Amino acid sequence: MVNRVLLWTLLLTQGFVLAVMPVGADGPAAAAQTLLVKFRPDVTEQAAAALLTAHGAIEMSRLGGRNRNVSASTYRWWTVKFAPETDISALRRALLAEPSVEAVETEQTYHVLPKSDK
């Protein structure tokens, strides 16, 4: 989170405009919805996959894949897709209530554009 704030501050002070848009906002309406889920350090890959499946995940992958050379913090994040009709806000709250889940973020696309002089 701190890195994200520092990046935004740097971009805004250098004359850029930052627009945050949910992924899929400009894509097809039937696109799967995506959450980024971070598990606590003691959660196994099997336990994480089982929990996500129980919550209706249709596709999931660990950030960094099976490459353990990525940072330990990054390796705890998963990209998880759910059916388009899923109530993503309710699902986010349900996942946050799970003891094995540390954080849940909605996937977003960041567009960085130069500030207009007009």
Folded structure, characterized:
With 118 residues, the chain is α+β, with helices and mostly antiparallel strands. The protein has a single domain (21-108), classed as Alpha-Beta Plaits (2-Layer Sandwich), CATH 3.30.70. The protein has four helices and six strands, in the order αββαβαβαββ. The protein has helices at residues 2-13, 45-54, 72-75, 88-96, and strands at residues 16-22, 33-39, 59-62, 77-82, 101-106, 108-114. A four-stranded antiparallel β-sheet has the order 3-4-2-5. The protein has a two-stranded antiparallel ribbon with strand order 1-6. Residues 1-30 have low confidence and may be disordered.
Continuous helix count: 4
Report Rg.
16 Å
Could you say which structural class the secondary elements and strand pairing correspond to? alpha+beta
- In N-to-C order, the SSE pattern is HEEHEHEHEE
Domain count, please report it: 1
The low-pLDDT segments are 1-30
Name given to the CATH architecture: 2-Layer Sandwich
What is the quaternary state of this protein? single chain
Range of helix content: 25-40%
**Spatial arrangement of strands, main beta sheet:** 3-4-2-5
Question: What is the terminal-to-terminal distance?
Answer: 32 Å
Q: Could you tell me the mean pLDDT?
A: 74
Keywords:
alpha+beta; four-stranded antiparallel sheet; two-stranded antiparallel sheet; 31% strand
Structure summarized in a few sentences:
By secondary structure, the protein is of the alpha+beta class. The chain has helices spanning 2-13, 45-54, 72-75, 88-96; strands spanning 16-22, 33-39, 59-62, 77-82, 101-106, 108-114.
